[in-house]
Write a structure and sequence with these properties.
Elements lengths: L10 H10 L4 H14 L1 H6 L8 E3 L2 E3 L11 H11 L4 E6 L7 H15 L3 E6 H4 L21 H10 L5 H12 L2 E7 L7 H10 L21 E8 L3 H11 L2 H14 L4 E2 L3 E4 L6 H20 L2
Parallel strand pairs: 3-4, 3-5, 5-6, 6-7, 6-8
Antiparallel strand pairs: 1-2
Length: 302
């Protein structure tokens, strides 16, 4: 994973910093890829069992299989029955690189939740070839053939499932989910365009909100949503830039407030992995474990 693979807010600075500190970038990149392929977190990304102890801060974490460490399905079911009800979770992944840290976080979350008896659906938008552009093809039939009033057509399509098949498939996942995790990098202080297109097309008028039915009365009320993001810049760099860009909370408000809260969902505090491209492999493993534990705790509180 190169410096720009998960770059987002501050990603340009990250790329410049990498270039300044290195000569012979091709050789360094090749060495980095080789080290990545051998790292424990990459093995976890592939779901490969490993018995190598990995240093996580002062502690030692010994993964014995995919994240969550529970290969026994009976044990997972018993844990679920004893301590918590099973939860339906949808993870929407918006990153083009299957070997990115965003993909690793998605995999870690999926493994951890399933190991504890929860049901997990993953919408990997790039892998699915999800269409981000909203147009007439989103509707089986149009109420006005001469002019596209998108929100108007959405409202009518929602009444009789008159959306295109790809939209209906995503809406069915949303409808079934109790928790939705949006996993993405910050690019230019915003989600990738493909995720914005998912918001536009899937969280439609008549499905996620309607006239007078938004915020506390939104049609998706009762669901929770978590923004799990990576940044190109470190926490300190983001703080230093906040006078120009706003704080990270302010940067995320259009999504947390304007999308999640607007549709009635509860916006949970975001999970942020700062500058994963700068992390040592052991630190990346620690981040995967941190997200896994975070989601397990969220599910347990439901």
């Amino acid at each position: 994973m190169g410096a720009g693979a998960d770059a987002g807010a501050g990603g340009i600075r990250m790329s410049l910093r990498t270039r300044r500190g290195s000569h012979g970038g091709g050789a360094r990149a090749a060495a980095h890829r080789q080290a990545l392929a051998q790292s424990a977190w990459f093995a976890l990304l592939r779901g490969a069992p490993t018995n190598a102890a990995v240093g996580v801060g002062a502690a030692q974490w010994r993964p014995v299989g995919p994240i969550g460490g529970m290969r026994d399905g009976v044990r997972a079911r018993r844990l679920c029955e004893t301590h918590q009800a099973a939860m339906n979770v949808l993870i929407v992944l918006a990153h083009p690189e299957p070997l990115s840290f965003n993909a690793a976080l998605c995999h870690a979350a999926t493994q951890a939740l399933r190991a504890h008896g929860h049901s997990v659906e993953v919408s990997d938008l790039y892998r699915q070839g999800f269409e981000a552009r909203a147009d007439r093809g989103d509707f089986v039939r149009m109420t006005h053939s001469q002019r596209l009033g998108y929100a108007h057509e959405q409202r009518h399509a929602a009444a009789d499932r008159g959306f295109s098949a790809d939209i209906l498939a995503e809406q069915d996942k949303v409808a079934a989910a109790e928790l939705i995790v949006f996993q993405f990098p910050l690019w230019w202080y915003a989600p990738p365009a493909i995720l914005k297109g998912w918001f536009d097309r899937v969280l439609s008028n008549g499905f996620a909100y309607a006239d007078g039915l938004y915020f506390e009365q939104g049609l998706l009320r009762g669901k929770q949503a978590l923004l799990s993001i990576t940044t190109g810049a470190t926490r300190e760099e983001l703080d230093a830039d906040a006078g120009h860009t706003g704080t990270l909370t302010e940067v995320l408000r259009p999504v947390a407030g304007g999308v999640i809260a607007f549709t009635g969902m509860t916006a949970l505090p975001p999970f942020v992995s700062h500058a994963p491209a700068s992390m040592a492999p052991s630190a990346r493993v620690a981040e995967l474990q941190r997200l896994a534990h975070h989601l397990q705790a969220l599910a347990a509180r439901r």
